[in-house]
Amino acid sequence: MNRKKKAQREIGPVSKQNKILLAMVILSLCLIIVIIRLFSLQIINSQGKYERQVDQLVEEVPITASRGDIYDRNGNVLAKDSSASAVNVIPFQVEQPERLAKTLSSKLGLKVEDVMAKISVLENDIVEVKTGISQSTAVTALSHNFPGVTVEDNVLYFEPIKITDPDAVAKSLASDLDMEYDEIHDLATRKENTAVLIKGKVDNALALELKNSEAIKNDAGEIESYNGVELLNDYRRYYTNGNFASYILGFTGADYNGLYGVEATYNDILSGENGVVYYQKDADGNQIASQTKILKEPVQGQDITLTIDSNVQLMAEKAVAEAAATWQTKSVTAIVMDTKTGEIVAMASNPDYNLNDSDTLDATFTATHSEDIKGMTDSEKLLEMYQNPAVSFIYEPGSTFKALTGAATLEEGVVTPDTTVYCAGSIQVGDAVINCSTGPHGTETVSDAIATSCNPGLVQMIEKLDPDVFFQYVYNFGLGQKTGIELDGEESGIINRLSTANGGINQVDYATFSFGQGLAVTPIQMISALNSVVNNGYYQKPTIISSKTKGTETEESPKQIISTETSSAMREIMRKVVQYDSSMTALSEGYSIGGKTGTAEKFIDGAYSTTKYVTSFYCFAPVEDPKYSVYVVLDEPKAGAYGSTSAAPTAISLMEQTLNYNSADTNLSNVSAEAVQKGSIVVPDLVGQTKAFAASILDEKGIKYSFDPATAGSLVISQSIPTNTVYDASTEIVLGLGDSTSNTSGTVVVPDVKGLSIQSANEILSGLGLNLKITGNGFASSQTPAATTVVEKGSDVSVTFTP
């Protein structure tokens, strides 16, 4: 008994200690839970809660930075910002959605369904539904597992954009929360209360007209709202001449970032740094007018200067347009380059597109590329149209490549210009027969074989050269790799080194390489490679960005691929190319020009086409010390076209215009003394240009001019001295003006459209409110009424076009 009581006395204290220990464990666990909860709320989840609070109380509105301007080498503005409006809608404030959708779609050229989707978008922020709810109510509300319904700190929230069934949410929670169905349903379907962009870069007048048309007035005639429409300041990129240099400049997208051309490649420099403005808003998302705004000013982008000369670019664009019309081509591309520096003076392709309306497919492109874009969506067709043929068109160069073969074989000493080869009209290589399209020539020198474009002669030359050595020259000339010019979409071309089954060189493929078959290049690659042949062997990387923009940026020194002696020999051989062709001799009379033609069958679906060709011509001047080079490529000209008949006339004419334009340097050509007298210049084509742009060109050239006082307007519609004539310093050019807003009410001055293409004539006439009536095709040769006639707007102008 005593032992039992003693045991109980011993057990009692132990049991009490256990209870205390248990209580301490429980308290510790509770404390740990509280600490974890506090850590979660204040540390882990604090950022999210803070962001939600900021979103509810502060509105952030971005301010787009103005982009830098783009200039040509002479300081002419090619692209700049202009003021515009961004049309936005605040869906929460829209009272008449159907009316608004109809207005926006009709005035902005949008689809009604797309607009309706934007103005009906639900709030993507949390919306406070009820505060101070009990834990049991929270559990009940969350037990339905509705997406977009959350509870935090005894507050129930909706995120409307995530709620999939607002009707079910309203029905289920009405009793749980002791609220009306309609009130909950309105919160669950609440529209976005911040601005939703409908369309940016809208003309200010149109945007204001649109906003005013949506004004909703009360019975007293006072404007209560604008049906949710809100206009914000915006910029749009304005390109001074629409289609001018479209593939070089490129354009900007909806986010104001560059998409193509130098707008894309130099976007980081041009775009600047956007700003932002913050302002406080109330619980409904409305700005509190009395509160202070916080503003971070935008930083304007930097300007860039290109190497192109606007005047030579205009010449190039006119040249490719004429060639395209004459030869009914798929496309024509021309590049004018400073041979010694690699600077692009002009780069033009036809068809092109309007940079100020880049979302519209060019009609000519649609027609000439119908096979390529068949089955594509409109977006895919636009992507095709934006590709710059000068850097992305891949083709077999044909005979222009013979200049590279000649340079490599001469440099390696396996032949000399006087080495003889024999042309029987064809040559057997393995089991293949390679024909000569210009022979048979019999025994001829290497110099003549290149000049007469003799395939068998070139085959015999390349067979003397080790293939590994030859292909190293090909790579040194920059083929098979991108040139690195500052334009988007450049292709690398294709250089195949086909081998036989035992790993040896495929003799047939190697032989055809000699005359430019079995490889693929781009126009920018070929003109750069050929320039190195005539530029004392030095390869200059092509560039479109002026040193004014590059500054002291250092580039690799040009590499010398062939010797000065070999280059000199090749220049004389390429002079013969022009001299041996009577038509090219006549075209280049009085000028020191060398060149090389090319005509190549297109490789389509695994076989060479017998109907589709690429013709080309490369020329440089003067032969003794080349300053400029011109390369013209015609894709799929009509039947009967050869490099000498289609590409050469365009290239030689463009070369002569370039030389005359720069004729203050008397070393550029050997034309008559009158044509090259110091200070003489060629009159540019100014018709269709703005008054300011025309004046800047004439001021730059030192040409005396005046505007016809009997005319008024912003566009040049006539000029007293014809285009491309040598300017006489004792004369003055008189420019006639006109535009769609003639000072004479209801009337307009008829412009002179003679010499223009159908497209160009139509653009000028339609811009003046006149209707073009077409007879024939080609270029305008006569018109009725005559130029300078004053007629009513809407009148017809009958124009006869001839090839």
From TrEMBL:
Gene3D superfamilies: 3.30.10.20, 3.30.450.330, DD-peptidase/beta-lactamase superfamily (3.40.710.10), Penicillin-binding protein 2a (Domain 2) (3.90.1310.10)
Alphabetical UniProt keywords: Membrane, Transmembrane, Transmembrane helix
Pfam families in the cross-refs: PASTA, PBP_dimer, Transpeptidase
Domain PASTA: 677-739, 744-803
Key word Membrane present: yes
Places the protein is found: Membrane
SMART domains per the UniProt record, alphabetical: PASTA
Transmembrane regions listed in the UniProt entry: 20-39
Top-level taxon of origin: Bacteria
Chief subcellular location: membrane
Keyword Membrane: yes
Family: Belongs to the transpeptidase family.
PANTHER family registered for this protein in UniProt: PEPTIDOGLYCAN D,D-TRANSPEPTIDASE, PEPTIDOGLYCAN D,D-TRANSPEPTIDASE FTSI
Record-given protein name: PASTA domain-containing protein
Species this chain originates from: Acetobacterium fimetarium
